[in-house]
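Morning F.,

Quick status update on the modeling queue. The single chain you submitted on Monday has been processed. Sequence for confirmation:
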Amino acid sequence: MKKRPEQTARTKADLEQAFWQLYATCPLEKITVGAVCERAGYNRGTFYLHYKDLYDLLAQREDALLAGMTECVEDCMQRLAGDASKLNKIAACTDVVLFYEHNKVYIRALLGKQGDSAFMHKLKDNLKPLWREYVLQPSGKRSDEEIDLMLEYTLAGTLYMISDWLAHPGKTSAKDLAHLVYDFAIKDARSRAEG
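Structure tokens below.
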């Protein structure tokens, strides 16, 4: 008998939700498949129909998030390259901030205290080429190594700023955060690269 795709998707969503609720408060090493299944209301056999282990579940979500975050930032950068008006700059950055807000459960957990430092490195590695292509204007005043270090600083700061904003909702609007992201991550990075 064939399983219905919508039932499979629902089961995976329930298991993922249970995992992320636990991961938000507990290191991965302390989470068990049994705890995830109990919270989701499924047995261990059901879990193993969809995932090899907890690391597989985490990797699947991380891969999807990395792809979505990279695509969202690239769309933003392309919009900025096509229309440099202040209104478009803020609108494009707001779209990125809203993507992060929409995925806040995952991003807060991955970039938070219990998070996965490897995820931050993968994300920065995905974003650096976009910054090089769309934000930084090659001036020849900075070496490739200097640019790489500068991007490390810029992206880490930006990601931590967004992570902190997600952890403390309500203090700053998405639009105001977009202004900060634009000012510090794009405008400031561009001027620093030009030396």
